[in-house]
Amino acid sequence: MALITGGSRGIGKAIAMAYAREGAKVFICARKRGVLRKAAEEIRAAGGEVRWYAADISKANAVRRLVRQVCRAYGTIHILVNNAGTLGPREPIIHYPVPAWEKVVKANLTAVFLVTREALGVMARQKEGVIINLSSGVGRIGKARWGAYAAAKFGVEGLTQVVAEEVKEWNIRVNAVNPGGTRTEMRAAAYPDEEPMTLPTPEEIAPIFVYLASDESREISGKSFDARGWRKI
Asked: Which ranges constitute the DSSP H helices of the chain?
């Protein structure tokens, strides 16, 4: 059973579709009910088992309700993909608005912490689980005008390593994936002059997420991967 945040479109929806094709039951969440419902209908039309729930996962109470809904529907959580995020303004730090900074960090880092913490409560009891966090190239090497987004993604990389060390005894593995440039709405907003057809689709980078959720990667934890160009060894 897999919970995917930001599962209504783009990379999150592609991961949900890929997991459903592999036979997993999936639960997707995002903030907008209409887009979530449409994504769930597409997954069902392809033969997948899916539930959905609208939530603002930057808020602790909303995350607790989300995890209760998932457990009510499926009884457990085997896989968590922390995919949800937001870009924020492309401004230099000297001009970066404080409210935007707080919003972006909450969406891209605090939300990952909140959902991970709640999911771990389920996974620790069953002594099994997989957590995959979406990172970014600017979460490894900072670049100008990436502001809070880059800082938050650096935090995601660090949080991945911290949690991986803490949950070894429970047979839970935690890894991060940098999708790289992908044909998504967020990428188009960040690079409006880029030709999107030169980029891989979310569906084309989904295989690494299937691999990291499978038993084939059961010995791998605390690592960070690049989705673009990844090939299973």
From this structure: 10-21, 33-45, 60-74, 98-105, 111-126, 147-166, 185-190, 202-205, 207-213
Lookup: tokens for 54:
């609208």
In angstroms, the CA 33 to CA 8 distance is 9
Q: Left, alpha or beta for 58 (phi > 0: left; psi -120 to 50: alpha)?
A: alpha
Residue 46 corresponds to which tokens in the numbers above?
């392809």
Is residue 30 a contact partner of residue 12, using CB atoms and an 8 Å limit? yes
> CATH: 3.40.50.720, 3.40.80.10, 1.20.200.10, 3.30.470.20. Which one for 2-226?
3.40.50.720
Beta bridge partners of 53: 29
The predicted model scores a pTM of: 0.96
What DSSP state is assigned to residue 35? H
pLDDT in tens, 181-209: 778 777 878 778 778 787 889 999 999 99
Q: Tokens 């409560």 correspond to what residue? A: 121
Q: What DSSP string runs through 100-117?
A: HHHHHHIIIIIHHHHHHH
Domain ranges of the chain: 2-226
Residues in a beta bridge with 133 = 82, 176
Catalytic positions, written as ranges? 149
